[in-house]
Write a structure and sequence with these properties.
Elements (H helix, E strand, L loop, with lengths): L3 E8 L8 E8 L6 E5 L7 H6 L2 H7 L2 E6 L22 H10 L5 E6 L3 H10 L4 E7 L9 H5 L5 E6 L5 H9 L5 E6 L6 H4 L1 H12 L3
Parallel strand pairs: 3-4, 3-5, 5-6, 6-7, 7-8
Antiparallel strand pairs: 1-2, 2-4
Helix pairs in contact: 3-4
């Protein structure tokens, strides 16, 4: 852990009644190459990215990584969400989060529930997103083929081959993105990054090195 600086904090976003909690990792000497925003699913929090080593892995790969607890969940439980669960949040929500945290040209990692936040952000603020890493996110069916085709952002689609419902559904929709690669994690379920962190980290770092 000596190569990595870990911090915690809270960031205030206008539409939330309370600040959002976040964890941050960066190379100890500073000078990060990429900014990464990590989101999470409904049963998870930023702590999962800490416990499986993703925050540390990203910092060692030269990235500044920020994992937030989404509104109403984890240590952001008192913050009101900008949309009901499963409905699309305003694209400006994550844009404001990134601006407040100085995450310019950000790589967004988005599993499951967080698709309700990341997909509107990607569709409405494409220039702010350096790359997109969806992991079986919800709400992919809420956009048209034309909307997907218009997105030029480099994308790494990740899902577990045991996630036969949401994983395969999202693959069909997200494969319409103009610039994408697909990683299928063998033997892994919906939260494939938890089932096999080694494969997850390897695929993620390899993708980030292409940016």
């Amino acid at each position: 852990m000596s190569e990595v600086k870990m911090t915690e904090g809270r960031v205030h976003v206008e539409c939330c009644s309370s600040p959002l909690f976040y964890r941050q990792s960066e190379p100890l000497g500073g000078g990060s190459r990429l900014n990464v925003l990590l989101l999470h699913g409904i049963r998870f929090t930023s702590e999962n990215w800490l416990s499986i080593g993703t925050l540390e892995t990203l910092a060692k790969a030269g990235c500044r990584a920020v994992a937030i607890d989404l509104p109403g969940l984890g240590q952001s439980k008192s913050a009101a969400a900008p949309a009901a669960l499963g409905e699309l949040a305003p694209g400006g929500f994550l844009k404001q989060v990134c601006e407040k945290l100085s995450l310019d040209s950000v790589v967004v990692i988005s599993p499951s529930l967080s698709g309700m936040y990341s997909l509107p952000f990607l569709m409405q603020h494409q220039p702010a997103v350096r790359a997109y890493v969806p992991v079986a996110p919800i709400c992919t069916e809420k956009f048209t083929a034309e909307q997907y085709h218009a997105v030029q952002t480099p994308t790494l689609i990740v899902y577990g081959d045991q996630d036969t419902q949401l994983g395969e559904l999202t693959l069909g929709n997200l494969s319409q993105l103009a610039s994408h690669k697909v990683v299928v994690m063998k033997g892994a379920g919906h939260a494939c990054y938890l089932d096999d962190p080694v494969t997850w980290h390897g695929a993620l770092v390899e993708f980030l090195q292409t940016l």
